[in-house]
Task: inverse folding
């Protein structure tokens, strides 16, 4: 027997994964379609399509952000930085600490270093597009810092594996900064929702 | 002469559905109308993305109605074609008619 309520997980995904605000009418339409006899499969299919359409639209609207993040994260000369005497001095000092303090130190050191790059890059980006809101900037930076820490734990774990140096220095090491930048810019400068609807008088 | 905004296929289909529905044009009837008239199912997410694009071009306008229990307390978003949108549909129709005219391969045949 069909439930009177649409699948709750699908509704949650619709409300949280479709970028841009103003999804209330879409969610209402799907509820209405379901209550008029459409099956749960239809509801799921519509939700997944809405998520895909929303993301592709968001990516098209944010191609400048993605390009900027890709350029900044790929321009950082990680191999040279890593092998520089100053960097090595700090890293070697950190590795002398007992485990897991050594891991925490390495992750924190890398994350702080990347956070400085990220803050400069995001500030330049926001200045270029002339959009700055301190609250959004701090929120975006906090999320980005979390991404950097988690990403660098992953990088440290992968450094123990037999990955090729090329792949490691030019791809893996740059991913935390890339995703951190994308998220920071995404949150610091929320996209303008599509067309706005006026509310009819009751 | 104003700047022309060329309509894509789905944009034109959605505009025609809006014109057919008149005052009652919101997500569910729009997608049903498209399904009934063209025989193709279009995801509501795609319909909304198209409508938002049309609204950004100034071809449609929208307004929020009152929330209803059937919709889980969510409001309907009604759409209507603007004067600019209506002119655009007419111009697209004229352009398509010109292209259609004189095609012997398509004359006297039922699709």
Result:
């Amino acid at each position: 027997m069909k439930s009177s309520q649409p699948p709750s997980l699908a509704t949650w995904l619709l409300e949280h994964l479709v970028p841009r605000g103003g999804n209330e009418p879409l969610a209402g339409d799907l509820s209405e379609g379901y209550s008029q006899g459409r099956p749960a499969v239809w509801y799921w299919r519509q939700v997944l399509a809405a998520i895909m359409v929303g993301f592709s639209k968001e990516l098209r609207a944010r191609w400048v952000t993605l390009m900027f993040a890709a350029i900044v994260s790929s321009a950082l000369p990680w191999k040279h930085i890593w092998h520089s005497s100053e960097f090595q001095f700090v890293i070697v000092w950190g590795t002398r600490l007992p485990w897991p303090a050594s891991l925490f130190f390495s992750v924190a050191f890398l994350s702080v270093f990347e956070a400085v790059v990220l803050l400069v890059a995001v500030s330049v980006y926001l200045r270029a597009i002339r959009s700055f809101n301190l609250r959004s900037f701090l929120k975006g930076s906090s999320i980005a810092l979390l991404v950097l820490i988690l990403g660098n734990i992953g990088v440290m774990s992968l450094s123990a594996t037999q990955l090729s140096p090329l792949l490691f220095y030019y791809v893996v090491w740059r991913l935390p900064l890339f995703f951190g930048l994308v998220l920071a810019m995404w949150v610091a400068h929320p996209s303008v929702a599509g067309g706005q609807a006026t509310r009819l008088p009751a | 002469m104003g700047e022309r905004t060329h309509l894509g296929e789905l944009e034109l289909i959605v505009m025609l559905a809006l014109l057919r529905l008149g005052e009652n044009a919101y997500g569910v009837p729009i997608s049903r109308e498209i399904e009934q008239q063209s025989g193709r199912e279009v995801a509501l997410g795609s319909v909304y993305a198209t409508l938002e694009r049309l609204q950004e071009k100034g071809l449609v306008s929208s307004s929020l109605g009152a929330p209803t229990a059937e919709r889980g307390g969510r409001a309907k978003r009604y759409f209507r074609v603007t004067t600019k949108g209506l002119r655009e549909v007419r111009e697209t129709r004229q352009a398509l008619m010109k292209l259609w005219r004189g095609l012997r391969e398509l004359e006297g045949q039922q699709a």
User: Anything to note?
Assistant: The first helix of chain A runs from residue 8 to 17.
